[in-house]
Specification:
Blueprint (H helix, E strand, L loop, with lengths): L18 H4 L2 H5 L14 H22 L6 H8 L3 H5 L3 H21 L1 H20 L4 H15 L1 H13 L5 H29 L2 H22 L12 H5 L9 H16 L2 H28 L8 H33 L13 H19 L4 H29 L4 H30 L1 H38 L1
Helix pairs in contact: 3-8, 3-9, 3-10, 3-11, 6-7, 6-8, 6-9, 6-13, 6-18, 7-8, 7-9, 7-11, 9-10, 9-18, 10-11, 10-15, 10-17, 14-15, 14-17, 14-18, 14-19, 15-17, 16-17, 16-19, 18-19
Length: 475
């Protein structure tokens, strides 16, 4: 594939060129320049405010999508349907998160980061408002599905913003923080929603979610900026609509990145690590969507507040996963810094995956034998340490491996993740009813172990061969 040049250098009809300059133009054309307009040279305060705005919308991406998972019983009674039917209102939204991320990629590259971040945020807020005012299951589900389609963008756009705004040595740390924000969401969101719903009703709870989206949108408007660097500032108003953000030919860019997505989906490293992310994310989301059923049943008999509080085990696990990722990834880098290759980032999965395997067994066996709820909480914490640690390590690897395709890579990994989250809600409840909790979570631990063994080592071995070939060439 050829790359796309800015409009100043290429007409709308001229042939595109390779991606290395169409993305991150400051590497290719402004290397060594200390231009204060380059996002990498912005002040720490400006970077921090923009990053906090990104964190707020990233936290809502998954957190808002599963916000209603602790409210399905109230909704079932309101709409006169079964609880299991009511629980499916989130499924299509979760699926469309993957497709929404893929569709956003060409737009991000053609029109810039900011407008594709801002306007889907506004639309998502309106979709949540529509869901809040819905009077039946079908209308509510339609709004929730559209919320998933548009609300996923922060999970894709975060990686190119980090690429634009920070230097390569800072990428793993910022990815760890950003990734933890949107991975905490699926556990924090339902907990808060359950507290509000227990005190009032599900409509008030969704009204609060609409307000949170409004606050996040205000933060994006106040602190968001275009981070695609073209060497000179454009109009602030124009940046809202993608005018002057990239200086690239629009139709050629849209076409190029649509083709690029199809190519990169099947690249060996992304295909292997994508499968790993799919399985790593599937089982924690399976816990999130089914845990209330068991906590409200004997021998636990939790009320709504108690069941919502249990969600903080997931939050604690995600934060512990951030801590593990921070220190373990730094240790991996220090150990291999003499002859560094991106594949070394993948060594960051071994400790988290071990935690996740132990967590699945602890969680499943505790529930299977009706043991104390502390076992459920500990197992859930261990599972989420594995989820966050693994996804962050793989994402950091993918950005280092393909730095000029970070938007594309981010969308592909997001697609794998959301496909796993969508699928589990359809097969796990029936599977547990048929085979029991102990066997199901034991099999999940085995599937996780086998998947990681079949996907990560081949990528590491391929990287090792590349490293040896390069060392031979240097000699």
């Amino acid at each position: 594939m050829e790359r796309l040049e800015p409009l100043e250098e290429q007409s709308e009809t001229s042939a595109p060129v390779s991606p290395s300059q169409s993305y991150g133009t400051h590497e290719a054309k402004f290397a060594g320049a200390m231009d204060p307009r380059d996002p990498q040279n912005w002040s720490p305060g400006r970077k921090t405010l923009l990053f906090l705005a990104l964190m707020s919308s990233s936290l809502l991406a998954d957190g808002a999508m599963v916000w209603g998972s602790t409210l399905v019983t109230q909704q079932a009674m309101d709409w006169n349907i079964t609880v299991n039917h009511s629980a499916t209102s989130m499924n299509y939204g979760i699926l469309l998160q993957g497709f929404g991320g893929i569709l956003a990629v060409p737009l991000i590259e053609a029109y810039g980061r900011y407008p594709v971040w801002l306007w889907p945020q506004v639309i998502s807020m309106l979709m949540v408002l529509g869901a809040t005012l819905s009077n039946d299951y079908s209308t509510f589900t339609t709004f929730r599905s559209l919320q998933g389609l548009f609300g996923t963008v922060p999970q894709v756009i975060g990686l190119p913003i980090i690429h634009d705004m920070y230097r390569p040595e800072e990428w793993p740390r910022m990815i760890n923080i950003w990734g933890t924000a949107f991975l905490v969401g699926p556990f924090l969101g339902p907990a808060v929603a359950g507290y509000i719903g227990a005190a009032t009703n599900w409509r008030i709870s969704f009204g609060v979610l609409t307000a949170l989206y409004g606050l996040s949108t205000c933060a994006v408007l106040a602190f968001g900026r275009e981070t695609y660097y073209v060497g000179h500032p454009g109009s602030r108003i124009g940046s809202y609509f993608g005018i002057g953000n990239t200086k690239l030919p629009k139709w050629a860019t849209l076409s190029y990145w649509s083709q690029n997505l199809a190519v990169y989906v099947f690249k060996f490293p992304l295909l292997m690590t994508g499968f790993a992310i799919l399985v790593t994310f599937t089982w924690p989301i399976g816990i999130t969507t089914t845990v209330d059923t068991f906590l409200h049943s004997p021998p636990y008999l939790f009320n709504t507040v108690e069941a919502s509080s249990m969600r903080f085990a997931g939050v604690i696990g995600a934060l512990c996963g951030w801590t593990v990722g921070h220190f373990f990834n730094e240790w991996v880098y220090r150990r291999h810094s003499t002859h560094w290759y991106p594949e070394y980032r993948l060594h960051g999965v071994w400790l988290p995956i071990s935690s996740m395997i132990g967590g699945l067994l602890t969680y499943g066996l505790t529930m299977n034998f009706g043991k104390h709820w502390i076992g459920i909480a500990v197992g859930w914490i261990m599972v989420n340490i594995g989820m966050v640690g693994t996804i962050v390590a793989i994402t950091a690897y993918a950005l280092e491996k393909y730095p000029n395709e970070s938007t594309c890579v981010s969308a592909i990994l997001n697609m794998w993740r959301t496909c796993g989250g969508f699928a589990v809600g359809y097969f796990q409840p029936a599977w547990i009813a048929r085979d029991g909790l102990g066997l199901v979570f034991g099999i999940q631990a085995i599937v996780l172990c086998v998947t990681i063994v079949l996907t990560i080592p081949p990528v590491l071995l391929r990287g090792r061969r590349t490293q040896r070939a390069d060392l031979v060439g240097e000699a």
